[in-house]
Specification:
heterotetramer; A mainly alpha (348); B mainly alpha (290); C alpha/beta (381); D alpha/beta (272); C: alpha/beta; Rossmann fold; 4-stranded parallel β-sheet; Peripla_BP_I (chain C); Amino acid/amide ABC transporter substrate-binding protein, HAAT family (chain C); Leu-bd (chain C); signal (chain C)
């Protein structure tokens, strides 16, 4: 246990950080984000950008699944809505990108009310299946209204100009996404420490008791749907900008599964876990590729006989390995490491 | 009129495939509380093994069937023992995600062991055309409907008469209590995995004969999933019914309404039915363990 | 702070494409790159294509390389996932610093890559999925080898209209840009010939069961069926037609024109039409190509050769020819220019291909028919 | 005094063919401590569930300060002044003690979803006020040392106290305590007894409790209501009820009956 910090006021209890060590870490993280565009090459920059976009989506799903305990397989659908919610007004109608970002959150949020209201009677796997169904239906609708969505051909998305700042280079895009990530984390932390966040936790841990405490289950589950899909929609818009092209093909159903896997690998119910999970799962295929290319020509010789499938196998093994050996995810691993650090050299 | 009958027949055939796989989902869920997301992949692997046996035996249907069934059971038992059972005390979501990890491995593994190409199964009897009073179907399509009927009958008998079936119900209700009563829960769960493997294996192999064998066969699992939900997650027989309903609906929607709607028709039905019956048509209310 | 340094770096990053025009070239080597699906079912095309590129490189290297430099290839697998295509592209251009790109995955992935390609200016060959947005309007550095789906369908439709006058048509297409291109081609043909479409529908990619679609085909009395799927879907449609006992003239398209499809369909595949701009393997040109492949590739690899090997080979030959023209001054600008203006390259498996000042070879197509006995296609007279 | 604080009139609950609570009528006056006793399965918790809005009664009327609660939404019972604890702990076990108590303040707070994202201005002031109230309760229940512990890691007795704190945080007029001292040792039980009296005397909260600990019931109740098989046996002052032959028989008989008709595990499991 850390010690030596005694709180004098209620406001201190409310603060997001409670020690200088934590503040120092945050400063380091922010400094890393700020300097990364100058240091990293385009490939790594792109990779980290993708990790951050994925993390935004992961934080969004965490609100619903990690905090409120509602399992969703509809991540893909809300991302698609967010991407089109941004692309259509900005690229087709010429609206300001800021309005686009707002719609990228609001459109999926509105849709989540449509999915949420009828789904509220359902729990667990039954809820998972209606969210899954909604994802398929969203894709179908996008293809069914080509007048609005340009159907299967998709919509090109330019890099935006936000408040006079033209996002042009990969470095700029990195910064834009980093800003969104930081804002998302702040917003999510604020929600977590509000009455809303506590109501979600209460529902997840014991819904009957939550109701007796005055939490209207329907309303707050809907809130979770709305907040979650708003954030997920934003990640969809960012992903669209990242790809510079929005089509339903860009959002395979697998994303829904990967999003859940991310929370598990990172550690359910924690924002840091969602971020770590995103870093891990986006980075994994790259690391595996690097290992493969380290073998050079011998690996290339294997190429046409299917060595790439080995990557898929490894990916699955890592997920299972985590679940089996480290069920609390990377956050659990981190906490264990901390304990060792603070307690060393004695166990207790 | 003939058009309608043909739509119904082809809907029934594909619905039977969904139904068999849906039953596999349901029986594992019933016995272990687990949803096995790798069920479609396991069916696909059995189909590929059948393909290999058929190639090696010049398309001998009996050897192929026997070999594939034996394989599917052994394979499922191995998966259950090596991957699933050690996770028995983990939270349910973690166990479900484990099966998702398995699914990823199986998909890549299939392409590693075999290839990514489409194949003909090479079983003449299965792909032979049979004329049923003006409606032509393939042998394998009759086979899959028969297999579904047999599976449903077997399950009904099993749960009603077999001690094992009753034990399975007990395990599903309360693992700990059942264990106290002397029910060997591990044995019951193995049985469920085995039965599921046979059903989804038969569905996979027969689908591969009547339609096509390719590494995208696993998607049958995803398509059958709504059938399980429709019937009720813990209702094995209900799932069979759900599969047939979805197969026939898809075909009727494709045949009379917009074919584009066909692929989402199943999902639309699910949402509609769950609104009225939140636990599926035949599900019991108790399953709220997530 | 060190903002001046940041600004300088940023400027360098912005200017990078122009300054590093000869990236990927050392005294002894030229590094090329490509992104394509090497895993999953789309690997059928990606791997075959990759073999074609390697064949062209091996052949050129055996003949002394380009200006004495050996050609090397870095292949990135995107698994047909667009975000990974983009990421791989940025890696190839920014980290591996390849000199040119021999392929950018499938059609959707290539279209999504346009902004990246445009911004970088790297010479890029597009031998897979030649969609119009890739060459209309032309980009300086993007070269599309082949023929558009629309024009291919147009020719196929004109042929069928002439062969089966007054027939009822059925059209089943995928609900994506590929399907849209085919529908456009039929529309064009309608203006020039008498075509009566009795049944038209679209399906979502990945659909496996086509029974209701084919029943409607039967019900509508379709005599000419455009099976606009790729691989699995075409197999499913033809087998379903066989089951229902209907025998329309069935026309398929080049993305699925591989022997595996014929094998999987079985005897019912005999006589189905296809259209393509590369020669069938069973033709003399095809056999000569196989002969060449045996020289440079392993036996396993030769077994995986299909039409995509030919398109990959031809397009890489075009790129090599341009680089050879620029051997003394191996820059992007020169290579782009040489590609645009270079003479036609005749690989035998395609009509002599050249860009003739443009960015598109506009290759002529041939109508062919399947022969189940030999699992191959033969040109229709 | 006009209407009693809580008034039950002919309250009945049936599950299918089973009548769990049968025509129970009783009342709690302001400032009273009333206990409900009865053997297992007598319908006590079902009665609590109806009073706290978890289950609707099949028949009968529940009034709070003369207001019929039938039309009140389950989550709004707390607004009318009903707080409760649960028989088996129902805490939010992943949250800290403070978090749990703050959930009790939920209905008193107004921060909207959008405001919550920003944590600025009113939401912040409101949060500080809520935490001040939570600190008072923590102090009152003497659980300062465990304030920031995650509830799931606490001992049973501590958790019970946190649950009491959470119920108090809702500012109830009537507090329903469901076997609050079950599983506690003598010392812990005495602490709780003291808290219950303090809650009534200092905070002016009336208390209705289900209790098996007869010493506690006899010591602090103003009135006792005895149930068996869902129906009232008797009601009155503790000593009277204790001496009532029906009550004695219910307890002894129930024990004998329980021994005989202990349901087979299978059936029990399925019912659960």
């Amino acid at each position: 246990m850390r010690s030596g910090f005694y709180k004098q006021t209620i406001a201190e209890h409310l603060a997001l950080t409670d020690s200088w060590t934590q503040r120092a870490w945050i400063a380091v993280a922010l400094a890393a984000l700020a300097t990364a565009p100058f240091v990293l090459d385009t490939y790594l920059l792109t990779l980290v950008t993708l990790m951050m976009i994925t993390a935004v989506g992961g934080i969004g799903l965490n609100i619903l699944t990690g905090w409120t305990g509602l399992i969703s397989l509809g991540q893909t659908g809300f991302m698609v809505l967010g991407a089109y919610g941004y692309a259509i007004p900005v690229e087709t109608w010429g609206w300001d990108p800021l309005a686009g970002f707002l719609l990228a959150g609001l459109v999926p949020a509105a849709a989540s009310v449509l999915v949420g209201i009828p789904s509220l009677r359902l729990t667990g796997l039954y809820l998972a299946i209606t969210t899954l169904a909604s994802a398929f239906i969203v894709v179908h609708l996008v293809l069914e209204f080509p007048g609005l969505t340009n159907g299967a051909s998709g919509i090109f998305v330019n890099r935006p100009t936000v408040l006079g700042w033209t996002v042009f280079t990969d470095q700029d895009l990195f910064r834009l996404v980093a800003i969104f990530l930081v804002l998302t984390i702040l917003g999510a932390l604020n929600l977590r420490r509000s009455r809303i966040g506590r109501a979600w936790f209460a529902i997840r841990d014991k819904d009957d008791a939550a109701r007796v405490m005055g939490v209207d289950l329907r309303t707050y589950k809907l809130y979770a749907f709305v907040a979650s899909s708003f954030v997920v929609g934003l990640s969809g818009a960012l992903y669209g900008i990242f790809l510079s092209f929005v089509t339903v093909d860009g959002f395979p159903f697998l994303l829904s599964i990967e999003a859940l896997a991310m929370l598990i690998v990172g550690g359910m119910g924690s924002i840091a876990g969602a971020v770590l999970g995103a870093v891990f799962l986006v980075g994994l295929p790259e690391v595996v590729s690097m290992v493969f290319s380290a073998f050079g020509d011998s690996a290339r010789a294997l190429l046409s006989t299917g060595a790439h499938e080995v990557k898929g196998v490894l990916y699955g093994l890592v997920i299972i390995g985590f679940l089996r050996l480290q069920p609390e995810g990377l956050m659990g691993l981190w906490r264990d490491a901390q304990r060792v650090w603070t307690l060393w050299p004695l166990r207790y | 009129m003939n058009y309608l009958i043909e739509l119904l027949v082809s809907g029934l055939a594909v619905g039977a495939v969904y139904g068999l796989i849906a039953m596999s989902f349901a029986i594992i869920f019933k016995a272990t509380g687990l949803l096995n997301f790798a069920q479609g992949e396991m069916g696909m692997i059995t189909a590929y093994v059948a393909f290999s046996i058929a190639s090696a035996t010049d398309g001998n249907p009996w050897l192929t069937a026997a070999g594939a069934i034996v394989f599917s059971v052994l394979f499922a038992l191995a998966v259950e023992r090596i991957v699933i059972r050690p996770m028995v005390d983990e939270p349910i979501l973690a166990r479900i995600m484990t099966t998702i990890g398995l699914a990823v491995i199986f998909r890549s593994g299939t392409m590693l062991v075999w290839d990514a190409l489409p194949h003909d199964m090479g079983l003449a009897a299965g792909s032979a055309l049979v004329d049923l009073g003006g409606v032509r179907v393939r042998g394998a399509q009759i086979g899959v409907v028969v297999a579904l009927a047999v599976a449903v009958a077997a399950m009904l008998a099993f749960f009603r008469y077999s001690r094992f079936g009753i034990a399975m119900r007990a395990v599903a209700s309360d693992d700990a209590t059942a264990r106290l009563m002397g029910v060997k829960t591990a044995r019951v769960q193995q049985a469920a995995w085995g039965a599921a493997a046979v059903m989804s294996g038969i569905a996979g192999a027969l689908f591969a004969i009547a339609w096509e064998l390719s590494p995208s066969l696993y998607a049958l699992g995803l398509k059958s999933f709504p059938a399980t939900i429709l019937g009720g997650l813990d209702s094995v027989v209900g799932s069979a019914f759900g599969g047939v309903v979805i197969g026939i609906t898809e075909n009727l929607v494709g045949g009379y309404l917009s074919p584009g709607l066909k692929e989402v028709a199943g999902f639309v039905i699910i949402i509609a039915i769950l609104m009225v019956r939140p636990y599926g048509l035949f599900g019991e209310k108790r399953i709220e363990r997530l | 702070m060190k903002s001046w340094k940041g600004a300088a770096l940023l400027a360098a990053a912005l200017a990078a494409p122009a300054m590093a025009a000869d990236q990927g070239v050392t005294d002894t080597e030229i590094l090329l790159g490509e992104v394509e699906p090497l895993t999953g079912p789309p690997g059928l095309l990606g791997i075959a294509h990759n073999l074609g590129v390697r064949l062209a490189l091996a052949e050129a290297n055996a003949a002394g390389g380009v200006g004495g430099r050996t050609l090397k290839l870095v292949a990135e697998d995107d698994g047909y996932v667009t975000s990974r295509t983009i990421q791989s592209l940025r890696k190839l251009i920014g980290v591996d610093k390849v000199f040119a790109l021999t392929a950018v995955s499938g059609s959707g992935q290539a279209v999504a890559s346009i902004p990246v390609l445009k911004q970088s200016g790297i010479p890029t060959m597009i031998p897979i999925g030649p969609l119009p947005p890739l060459y209309e309007p032309p980009m300086d550095n993007v070269f599309v080898v082949g023929q558009s789906y629309t024009e291919g369908m147009h020719q196929l439709a004109l042929f069928l209209a002439e062969k089966h006058p007054g027939a009822k048509w059925g059209v089943i297409t995928q609900d994506d840009d590929y399907g849209a291109a085919l529908r456009e081609g039929i529309e064009q043909a309608k203006g020039e010939a008498q075509i009566e479409v009795a049944f038209e529908t679209r399906y979502a990619r990945g659909q496996k069961d086509f029974s209701s679609e084919m029943l409607r085909v039967k019900d509508a009395g379709v005599e000419v069926l455009i099976a606009g799927g790729i691989i699995s879907e075409n197999i499913a449609m033809v087998k379903e037609a066989e089951k229902l006992g209907i025998t329309p003239a069935i026309a398929t398209f080049w993305p699925g024109r591989v022997p595996e499809v014929l094998k999987a369909i079985g005897p019912a595949s005999d006589g189905i039409y296809a259209v393509d701009y590369v020669a069938p393997i069973q033709s003399d040109a095809g056999q000569a190509f196989l002969e060449l492949a045996r020289k440079h590739l392993t036996e396993d690899e030769v077994a995986r050769v299909n039409r995509y090997t030919m398109t990959g080979y031809t397009s890489t030959r075009l790129l090599i020819a341009a680089m050879q023209t620029c051997a003394e001054d191996l820059t992007w600008a020169c290579t782009n220019q040489a590609l645009a203006d270079g003479p036609a390259v005749d690989t035998g498996v395609m009509a002599p291909a050249a860009f003739a000042g443009g960015r598109f070879t506009n290759s002529p197509v041939t109508i062919m028919q399947a022969d189940y006995e030999t699992l191959s296609y033969a040109p229709v007279d | 005094m006009s209407a009693p604080l809580l008034k039950l009139t002919g309250v009945t609950k049936r599950f299918g063919g089973l009548t769990a609570v049968n025509e129970v009528s009783t009342h709690v006056d302001a400032g009273e401590i009333v206990s409900i006793i009865g053997p297992n399965g007598a319908g006590k918790t079902t009665l609590f569930n109806m009073i706290s809005g978890v289950l609707p009664p099949t028949e009968g009327r529940i009034e709070l300060e003369g207001r019929d609660l039938a039309r009140v939404a389950p989550h709004d019972y707390v607004r009318h002044g009903i707080g409760r604890t649960f028989q088996n702990l129902a805490l939010f076990k992943h949250g800290t003690v403070v978090d749990n108590i703050l959930v009790g303040r939920h209905w008193r707070m107004k921060t909207s979803l959008v405001e919550a994202v920003f944590h600025f201005g009113r939401p912040r002031r409101e949060e500080i006020a809520a935490r001040e109230r939570a600190e008072e309760i923590i102090e009152f229940l003497e659980i300062e040392t465990i304030r920031d512990k995650v509830v799931g890691t606490l001992s049973y007795g501590q958790q019970k106290r946190v649950e009491l704190g959470r119920a108090l945080a809702t500012d109830p007029k009537l507090l329903l305590l469901d076997e609050i001292v079950a599983g506690m040792n003598q010392e812990e039980t005495e602490d709780i007894a003291r808290f219950i009296l303090d809650i009534r005397d200092e905070l002016g909260v009336s208390i209705l409790m289900i209790e098996h600990d007869m010493h506690l019931v006899m010591d602090i109740s103003d009135r006792v209501h005895a149930l068996n098989f869902g129906a009232t046996i008797t009601e009155g002052r503790p000593a009277e009820v204790q001496a009532h032959p029906g009550v004695i028989e219910a307890y002894l008989g129930a024990k004998a009956a329980a021994a005989r008709a202990e349901p087979a595990p299978l059936l029990k499991a399925r019912a659960g």
